[in-house]
Amino acid sequence: MSFFLALLLSPWTWRLVFENALIGIFVVVVSFLFYKKQKWLDGKILLSLLVILLVVQYKTTDKQPLSALGDSQKFVQQQRLHIYPPTFYQVFGHYIWFYPANWFEESKFSIWVNRIQQNFSEVVDPGLYFFANHPRQRVGFDEFEKFPYVFLPFFVFGILKLERRFCWQKGLFVLLPIFLVSFVGHRNQYGPIGLFPFIVVVCATGMNAFVKRFAGRQSLKVLLLVFLSLVFLQVMSYEYS
Amino acid sequence: MNTRRFRWVIIEILALCLIVVFGTFFYLHDLARVPPGVYVDETVTGYNAYSLNLTRKDEYGKSFPVALRFFGSYSPPVYTYITIPLVRVFGLNAMAVRLASSVCGIFGIIVFFLLLKSLRITRSRITLLTTTFLFAITPWNVFFARTGYEIYLGFFLFFVGVLFCWLSLSRKTYLLLGFIFLSLSTYGAHLERYLSVFFAFSFLFLFRKNLFDRSNKIVLFASAVAFGIIQIPNFTLLDTTVFFSKSALFYSQQVISQAEKIRFLPEIIAIPLSFLREFFSQYVAYFSPRSLFFLPDPDPQRSIPDLATFYPWMVGPWFLGLLKLWTLRKTNAGRFIFLLLFLIPFPVALTKDPFSTQRALPLLLPISLVTTLGLDMVLQKIRLRFAFPLVVFLLVYSIVLLWRGYFVLLPHERARVWGYGFQQLAEVIKENPDKKFLIDQSRTKPVYIELAFFLAYPPAEFQQEVDQTIKEDYYNKPSFSSYYKFGNIETRNIRWDEDIYKRQILVGDEFAISEQQAKEHFLTKVLEVNDLNGNPIFRGYETNPEMKCKISPSSLCTL
């Protein structure tokens, strides 16, 4: 029940299904199998499905070279090259020069590190999944609602429940997509779909644990369901307004 | 105490002294030059301290106010009062205005060390010193410890109050000191006016089993009385607009406009839902790794180029620390950190700025504690001989990032937003006492205070030249007008239909007066002030009313 609630009340599911039914259904199936791991389902099969999902993610992403700079970034780089003070040390009468401007601003390594950091920071930001990056929307991105914001407490609760019985599949389901997005970037109309199964499963786990805690109180469950439905309507209104 | 332990205590004390020396260097090095210029909030603090020193009255002629009417914001006054002797000793300059924050920063290192040590949450021997050093050089800490207005002082007083409250769990009498500092912090900065009260109540509630017993009655009573007595000046302002001066920061308009988008639901449901999402999104932004470790504050005046509030590598310890904190949730230390972590963003999340590092400064404390937990998890798992080089590498890497961002990039890239150029403009004005200057105010923060500061304009004269009705109802005049006229200066937007018919110098930024306008109105360029990159900040043009009247006569020509 929790799993289907987490799945059906997510605008991201509907967006995926409506924009590309094949991808949408595949993502839903992978999420379901990941959630309801049966005996017949070997870990390797699950991992293969994750790899296929990551290939889809990779293929649908508008990839930017890690060392490429936009016009404004190039302008800033040129400005910065001139502002570092000359840095040298005198050792036994010899001058040893350092070139911090080139190291920090021009070297490919530092540009890569910055780009990877930026991609990583965006993919691990809860705001991306639960608030369409509000209040710090990115310039030039189509920010869309992925999960209703009320799922965030369930997600946090789910993470804490997950940590106790952490297994390698779960680790891979979160680390591999983050690793991939950190390198290929975010320009993907479907969002970071590689992380979809993990987030849905964690939210469902959290919701399950929450419902179990209030097992005897039916009225509370009904109230929660009504509230979740209202928030779903709210989030869908933002998405399609 | 055995010899080994005694030796370790000596090492700790020496290392702490070394960290304080490093911190002193970071907080005082080139303090007058970096940040470049003097920001309006600093100049208003400095000029009011100068005015209070010379006349015992603020810029509006009000004698020692309980809240200072800075641009209608009614700022808590302690920072300005502390700055009075500094201005007297060092003169009216950037150094004098920023020094009190820096000194608080230096003492803050010791307070952090004491808090961390008393919390007993670290296991590795080197974590305590490493994270104290890291706290001292954290971008968030360094940046605000070098700004000359009330933010850091408010945080520092709150921080000391928090330390004593924590210590009171083991020695009850400290509660009195804790409450005194918490109460004092409400005169430190805007946020602490609310935060300290919330914290005091929440602390008492959360640790009621430890604090509320018969043997502790007197201390509890004395603490409450001390807190209340210190609040008396604030109580006298309850019927004024002082406590609502920041109400414009609430996102009521966003809530309404978002609620209008929810067409399926009635307003009575849509508005609370809309508020809930807005509040929740703002609240979560203060825990977002993207905001904390990677993205600088969106306001360029409140951030270091390419640096967020913490160093990017600290994201790992942050995640690990959160997991560790969860395991400590039933301990007093865990509950105390949880209280700080979840309480501080509450009032901040009610304001519309996305991730305001200035308002959320007290969050520096719990986040530093959580990253300490994470770093400790890592360091206790590796041997000292490997941990030590790792720590040295991370600290050196962090210092290099700080040096690059704060001491190299910031002076060049943020000069304009920090008010660079006003000093040079003031010098030109001083050199031309017989000429009239009209400073365009359309795109800049209040100009008058920058010029009054750099000209060290006599406060007694200034008090006579401002709106005299303000001091009559000082605490109920929050609306601010940027129009000022004092000495040979007038600050307002340029009125092109009349200002060109008067002999004066029109001054504005590079967009205020175009080449075309200069040609059309016979204006002669007489001054240009550039930033450190050579880009113009101000341009000044002298009018030629005779020529203008000759070519296009106006009724103003006869005057």
TrEMBL record, chain A:
Keywords, in A-Z order: Membrane, Transmembrane, Transmembrane helix
Superkingdom of source: Bacteria
Membrane-traversing stretches: 12-34, 167-184, 190-210, 222-240
Name the record gives this protein: Glycosyltransferase RgtA/B/C/D-like domain-containing protein
Organism of provenance: Candidatus Blackburnbacteria bacterium RIFCSPHIGHO2_02_FULL_44_20
UniProtKB/TrEMBL annotation, chain B:
GO process annotations (BP): lipopolysaccharide biosynthetic process
Chief location: membrane
Keyword field: Cell membrane, Glycosyltransferase, Membrane, Transferase, Transmembrane, Transmembrane helix
Residues annotated as transmembrane: 7-28, 95-116, 128-145, 151-169, 176-206, 218-244, 307-326, 333-350, 362-379, 386-406
Membrane topology: Multi-pass membrane protein
Gene Ontology terms: cellular component: plasma membrane
One annotated GO molecular function: pentosyltransferase activity
Subcellular location: Cell membrane
InterPro entries membership: LipidA_mod_glycosyltrf_83
Full protein name: Glycosyltransferase RgtA/B/C/D-like domain-containing protein
